[in-house]
Design a protein that fits this description.
By secondary structure, the chain is of the alpha+beta class. It is about 30% helix and about 20% strand. The protein folds into two domains: about 45-165, 2-Layer Sandwich (D-amino Acid Aminotransferase, Chain A, domain 1); about 175-335, D-amino Acid Aminotransferase, subunit A, domain 2 (D-amino Acid Aminotransferase, Chain A, domain 2), CATH 3.20.10.10. The chain contains eleven helices and 15 strands. Strands 7, 8, 9, 10, 11, 12, 13 and 14 form an eight-stranded mixed β-sheet that branches. Strands 2-1-6-5-3-4-15 form a seven-stranded antiparallel β-sheet, with helices on both faces. It starts with a helix and ends with a strand.
């Protein structure tokens, strides 16, 4: 048995050293394209129905061709920003709000757009129309562009704009989840307040929660104040029926969180909420709240019923959380023209 194991280990080492494994060399682009089609189009559902690339100069409907250059500085230096808009029932929800934040992020990251805002908007609308997708997400990126593998983007001829439509079947969240306090250091305010592609802390924070049997995590800053989740904002309902959203000075200013704050006064008028405010809230105060929720684009609210193995309120989904969720969901489904844009599908 030992001889057999030794032989297997030796053979594995030889393979790892490249003595047996032979890398295929594609002699033509047609061979490569055939292999890409084999990989991506083998009966699988077309999850990505359309992509736009400024390096191509147009829209791609073939998933096998939805690629970006390896020397793009967003790939090897993380020099890029992104944002997302929701597609629901053939409408783009809060496209302009997200696009404005996108350009603010680009400015902070010192990335100039290859197109004016109006052109970016037109591209995103045409891309969504070409995709024929009626429900999903529209994700888009600005990169300092392809050019070389150096640190500075000085050698990049131009910035690059990419966008993709993703089919997603999301619905209003009504079940509560468990969260933990993240031990992964949160980003500094300079980077947390721009929606950039450097998401490794966010990824590790989410993985940490999953490893502990929780849905996701909560970041608490050095002063003990609640910050945000790995890719969502958080909000709380106090026992006095106040809605509190953490201050956005050190975290990303969530478009959905901002919209929630605009809609919440409707519940105040009905006497169901006492008030709504944006304020610092300590982790201890937050854990003593009556209700707690994540706030994000596709949720739009996700009830949180347990934090660090302790129940929030009664440990059940709160009535006010769902009332706020209904407000946001109704806004997504049938809100005003300022929030929803009807996509001109062919």
């Amino acid at each position: 048995m030992e001889t057999s194991n030794s032989s297997s280990l030796q053979k594995s080492a030889e393979v790892e050293n490249g003595e047996e494994f032979k890398v295929h060399v594609f002699s033509s682009s047609s061979q490569l394209l055939e292999k890409l089609h084999e990989k991506w189009n083998s009966g699988a559902e077309q999850t990505y129905p359309a992509m736009y690339s400024s390096t191509f100069g147009g829209i791609v409907l073939d998933r096998a061709m939805m690629v970006i250059p390896i020397d793009d500085h967003m790939v090897h230096r993380g020099h890029g920003v992104f944002d997302t808009a929701i597609i629901l029932d053939g409408y783009l929800y809060e496209l302009d709000v997200h696009l404005d934040r996108f350009l603010r992020s680009a400015s902070k990251a010192k990335i100039s757009s290859p197109f004016p805002r109006s052109t970016l908007r037109s591209i995103l609308i045409q891309l969504t129309a070409a995709s024929q997708c009626k429900k999903g997400t529209l994700r888009y990126w600005l990169s300092s562009g392809p050019g070389d593998f150096l640190l500075s983007p000085a050698g990049c001829p131009t910035s690059a704009f990419y966008a993709v439509v993703i089919k997603e079947d999301f619905s209003q969240c009504k079940e509560g989840v468990k969260v933990i306090t993240s031990t992964i250091p949160m980003k500094s305010p300079q980077f947390a307040t721009m929606k950039n592609v450097n998401y490794l802390p966010n990824v590790l924070s989410k993985m940490e929660a999953e490893e502990k049997g929780a849905f996701a995590s909560i970041w608490v800053d050095d002063e003990g104040y609640v910050a945000e989740g790995p890719n969502v904002n958080v909000a709380f309902i106090t026992h006095d029926k106040e809605l509190i959203l953490p201050v956005f000075d050190k975290i990303l200013s969530g478009c959905t969180a901002r919209r929630l704050f605009e809609l919440a006064p409707r519940l105040v008028e009905q006497g169901r909420l006492k008030s709504a405010r944006i304020a610092n809230i300590t982790a201890d105060e937050a854990k003593s709240a009556a209700e707690m929720m994540y706030v994000g684009s596709t949720l739009p609210l996700l009830p949180i019923i347990e934090w660090d193995e302790k129940p929030i309120g009664e440990g059940t989904v709160g009535a006010l959380t769902m009332a706020l969720s209904d407000l946001l969901w109704d806004d997504m489904v049938a809100g005003p023209e300022t929030q929803r844009f009807l996509v001109p599908y062919a």
